[in-house]
Every structure is written in structure tokens, then in C-alpha cells.
Amino acid sequence: METSVIPCMFQRTIARAFTLLEVMVVIIVIGILAAIVVPRFGGVTEDAKSSALQGALGGVRSSIASFRAKAVISGTTTFPTYDELMKTGIVVQQEIPKNPYSNLSTVREVSGADAAARVVDGSEKFGWNYWVDNASTPPQCIFYANSKDATTVSDGSGGFKSANDL
């Protein structure tokens, strides 16, 4: 004769859970890992801003140099005027990039003295500063960031350059 086992509806199942001690150990380990990782990546945002600023400056300055090279080949030695710089397609092929420190792509025309001193003014309205003097011999121009924010670019003496000094 066969015997069959009939499962009982009232059979008790034992559920295991984590103990308070196990949960506390996991929380402590996560806290230690966070304490190690967060400081290592804390400056990543500032490094990215500095790199983006250097890239934007390099791109615009390269476009200005290309404009001048074409001018020299055609018999003049001029840098682009402020109006030429601002017209898309003449100097830069797209809009002037945004300054990563102010998030502004507007350009302010400055005087030669302000450009030489890298004066920052109106940083809530302008992301960049531009000065050009095609009447001088040789012609001169300066394009720089309109921001005094500190970057992560070394100044060579243990400090960091400000955005307008790049």
C-alpha cells in the first residue's frame, strides 16, 4: 500500500532576516567606502570647467588666427573686428561657445587697457571679452574669459590661474 504525504496548510515556514548587527556592519562599510571615494572625485567638476574653458578659448583663438592668416595671404594683416567676430560664419563657423564659468556666450568689446589688465566687468551679462587694434603695427587682439573664478590650471607657483588669466 502506498502512502502519500499530504501537505499541511498549517505548516510553519521560518523566514530568515538580517540581524541588526549585520545591517550595521554593511552601513559602516558603505560609509567607509564613501569617505574614501567622495574626496577623490570632488574636484572633477572644477577640472571639467577648466578644461572646457581652455577648449573654448583655444577654439575661438584658433578661428581668429585662421581669419588673420587668410587676411595676410590676401594682402592685409588685420584681425577680425568685433562685428566680424560676432557674425557666425565669418570667423567662427558656429555661435561663440558658452563660458563654462558663467554659462554665457555673449562677448563684450573692451579697451586696450582693460584687455592688457584682463579686467572683468559685467560678468552677469558677458561671458567673454574682446579687444582688437588693427591700426597698430603689428595689429593686435586679445580674447579672454570675462570671469575671475579660480580654475584648476596651475600658475606655476603653487596656486591656480583665474579664468580671465587663461
Describe this structure in a few short sentences.
With 166 residues, the chain is α+β, with helices and mostly antiparallel strands. It is built from four helices and five strands. The strands form two sheets. The protein has a three-stranded mixed β-sheet.
Notes on the structure:
The chain has about 170 residues and is α+β, with helices and mostly antiparallel strands. It has one domain (about 40-165). About 40% of the residues lie in helices and about 15% in strands. The chain contains 4 helices and 5 strands, in the order H-H-H-E-H-E-E-E-E. The strands form 2 sheets. Strands 1-2-3 form a 3-stranded mixed β-sheet. A two-stranded antiparallel ribbon has the order 4-5. Strand 4 (about 150-155) and strand 5 (about 160) form a beta hairpin. The model has no long low-confidence stretch (mean pLDDT about 90).
| Class per helix and strand makeup | alpha+beta
Number of separate strands: 5
The amount of beta strand, in percent, is 5-15%
Q: Please tell me the overall pLDDT.
A: 89
N-to-C terminal Cα separation, in Å?
95 Å
Q: How many domains?
A: 1
What does the main sheet amount to? 3 strands, mixed
Major sheet: order of its strands?
1-2-3
The amount of helix comes to 25-40%
